[in-house]
Structure formats: structure tokens, C-alpha cells
Amino acid sequence: MPLGSGIHRDEQVRGLMVICHKSTKTFAVQGDVRRNGRHVRTVRVKIDRVDRIGLNEARRRAKGLMSQIQGGVDPTAKPAETGITLAAALEEHIGERNLSARTEESYRDHLDRLMPRFRKRAVTDLTRQEVRDLFNELKRKHGVNSAAGAMRTMRAVINTAPRIDETIGGNPVDGVRVPAPRKREVDEMDLRAFWARTEELSPIMRDLQRTFLLTGARRLSVLSTERPHVDLDKKVLRFAHMKTGGDLLFPMGMFLTAMLKKRMEEDEPLDSNWLWPSPLSTSGRLVEPKRARVPSPHFLRHHARTGMIAAGVPYAESALLLGHSLPGATGGYVHRSHLVEALRPWAQRYEDYVLAATIPAIDAGEPVGH
Length: 370
Prior knowledge:
By secondary structure, the chain is of the alpha+beta class. 42% of the residues lie in helices and 11% in strands. It is elongated and about 100 Å long. It starts with 5 loop residues before the first strand and ends in a 12-residue tail after the last helix.
């Protein structure tokens, strides 16, 4: 039987064959799996190379495999996975936590896009070596940051799984040294220059950028604000889309209140429910603000935190104004919605700090908030 000559079938044992590849020859058996008289699939099972076993041994093994096949058993089928799968563990993890839509979307993206072949795998069957190989593969294809993010997602999801599946011993991600996220370096900010640059923008973009700075809120929290969320009488701005879940009631300073009141009056003819309407957007609101030489919303959030410290706002109060959770057990007892008026003097103090640094850049006729 020369190499590369293809398949040669045995005359004595049904299904047994020798497959002559270009460089090797192997014994194999092929048969039809039938159940209840119905053809399920045709399977071919490799037995061994012809230089390793003789014909009599190959015939013996082939008879055993054909017996299984004729009995309706597929010898190529993998053993059933045991325990909760990674995909099921993800659903449990999401269900146990009040995650933002963006965080949940990120978790699902990591599982569906970056590790699709692991989705249906049982957590208890995953090995450290498999996870190490996955991490190295992701680093090569998508870079270190994406690979590290996927590993952090996998670690968090698997940490949830043992509460449902007691067969899980440890977390295989522990076998990977996941690099910590790089700390973002934020440059110093010239408040006066920022204020002057916003004057060059359209009125709605000017007010939007100043709202980012005066509230320190995240981009999506500000952009998804609706007009009913602005209570001008109580001087309260409600952010309904928070990364940590829930709402944030922000006590507006006098300048911010006056600015948003004017903004809403000017946008009244648009008949939009959004605070930052955009007739050209499919959503009806601004989605990604054009910065035009002004910092990003995330940069402005960093500077708001710094500015609050410079203005003398205490740590806990500034954290609550930014929507952060206070550390420790005490933080769990703090309900921000009950502290709106208690936080108002500190919000006004921060606003005064910003305005004091930008007064030379403000038009003479524009109110300063006092």
C-alpha cells in the first residue's frame, strides 16, 4: 500500500480500513450510528498507525468499535461536560449584581467575542494551562489590555460559579499573572483657557462642556439626561444612568442652574425630551460630543475631583458628588438621596472655585452664580 494511495478496506472486518496519507499510514474504522432505526451520523475513528500495531490487533480493536457504533454509540463524542458552564456562570454573575448596561455589555463581549470556544465549557473542567494559553493567544491577537480585561471578566465570573456548582475547586485564572490596569496620567488644566475655548463652541456644546466640568459626571450620565430630570425649582439635576447603578441627585450651583434654565428655554422649539437634543441623531440626542480642542469628559471628571479638593471639599462629600461609593462597611449605610441639601454647600463651593478661576474669561454681562 504505497503512501498517498488513499483508502484500502479490510475484507474480513467490516468498517476497518487503512488510510495511506502522504507521509503516514493509519488504521481506522468507519460506520453508521443508528438509533431507533434512524441514521444519526457516519463516524470515522482512528485506531493507530500501521507501524505501531499489527493487522490482528487492528482487527480486534475495530470489532470493539464497530460493536459500539452498531449499538448506537458514537465513539467520537466527547464526554458530557459536568457542572455549570462559563456562559451560565456569567448569567448568574450578572443576575447577582446591579451592573450598568455598559458593564454588562462589556462582560458579554469578552465571553462571546474573545473566548467563544469556552462559553459552553464547564467551569470545573477548565485547566490553568488552557487559561494561560487563552491569555497568550489574546495578547497576541488583541493586545495586553484587551487580554487582561478578558481575564478579569473570566476571574469574576468563575468566582461566582462555586456558589452554584460545588465541584469547582479553584479558579484557573489564578494561574495567570494578569497585569493591573495602567493608571491614567492626567495633565494639569488651565481653567481660564478651557472656559475661553468653550465660548468658541456652539451654545449647546458650550453648555455641555461646562456641565461636564461643573458636575464631574461621566459622559453617558450627562448625555442621557432628560428634561424632566432637571428640577429648576429645587436646583437638583438627576443622573439616571450611573455606572454603579441607581440614580444620582446632584445639587446644582447657582450658575449651573441658571445656565441649564436658559439652555432649556432656547431648546424648547425642538420639542425634545432630551436635555441635550440633536435633531440629526437617530437617538434624538447628542451621542458623542465634538470636543474641538477641549478635554474629554473623562479628563474633566478627573479635574473635577482635583478641583473639589482644591476648593476644600472633604473627601466623603466630593466622592458622593461624583457618584463614588464610600469605602468600608460605613459606606453601605450612606444613602446619597438623603444628602442632597447637605451636599449643596460643597457643590456650590466647588462651582465658586471654578468660576473664580474663569471670571476674566466670562463675558461681563454673564451671571457668575452669586
